[in-house]
Structures are given as C-alpha cells and as structure tokens.
Write a structure and sequence with these properties.
The chain contains 4 helices and 5 strands, in the order βαβαβαβαβ. With 160 residues, the protein is of the alpha/beta class. Strands 4-3-2-1-5 form a 5-stranded parallel beta sheet, with helices on both faces. β2 (64-69), α2 (95-105) and β3 form a beta-alpha-beta unit. The longest helix has 14 residues, at 47-60.
Amino acid sequence: MPAVMAEAHKDGDYFVDYEEKVFEDVKAAPGEKALVTFHTVAFEGSIGLVNILNAIRLNRKGYETSILLYGPGVTLGIQRGFPKLGDAAFPGHQNFADNLKKFMGEGGKVYACRFALQALYGHGEPSLLPGITPIAPQDVLDCILLHKKANAVILDTWTV
C-alpha cells in the first residue's frame, strides 16, 4: 500500500476558495418580486431548509418575497417540539421554524394551503407557526399565476 504523506486536515483549514465570487451580486429593482414554492416533506431532505435560506437571501436582495407551502410543504410551517411545542428534541429540530420566523420577521410572507394542512396532514390553522397565512386550495395556483404575471423570480421545489 502506498503511504499517505499529506498532513491531516484540522479545524480552521479551508478546502475551497469560498471568497471568490464568479457572478455579480444581483439586487432587486424596486417592485421586483420572488416566490419560493415548497412541495416537500419536512426532515425528508435538505431542500426545505436550503430554499428557506434562499428565500431569506432573496428578501435581503430587495425582492418582495413570498413562500408558498402546499402539499407536503405545509409540514415545514407547523409548530413542533418535544416534550413541548417549541422545544428542540435534537440539534436542528427547530431549523424550519426558526428560519421561517426570521424570514417573516424581515418582511417575508408565508402562505400555507388549508387543504393540505387538514385533508393530507390532519392539522388545523392553529398548528401553523404564528404569522403564516392559511389559504384556500384554489389560491395555490392563483398565487403562482400572480407572481408569474409580475415577472417574479420563481423557485419551485418538488420532492417525491
């Protein structure tokens, strides 16, 4: 077997040049909008958290940003915790709630489909994090269409 001569990595080392930015830092023009949709299950992958973080970034870039939770996406916006609501049963347990609260605290809007909430996941409107607006199932398509008419940046997230 060949001997490995490289020194072991240690805390504080870099693997990549994280400071080099290839593209210009795009900012929204006044009145520009963005919509991030979620049709994904909480804790089933990283995309739910990643795109909440993307929504926060879009908002900070000046876009009037909304999040649309529908289908299994509503599971990102429900209150959770153990043993009590709001408690973190494990590290990262409250990532969705914490970041959605941050997003809404910075002016972002979050909408959740009432059909998915009740019919699919057995929750009511009181299960939603405070600040999330419940909407009719017919509003899901209209929300998307209104953003499309406004030439919004739209990030659609689907996981199956």
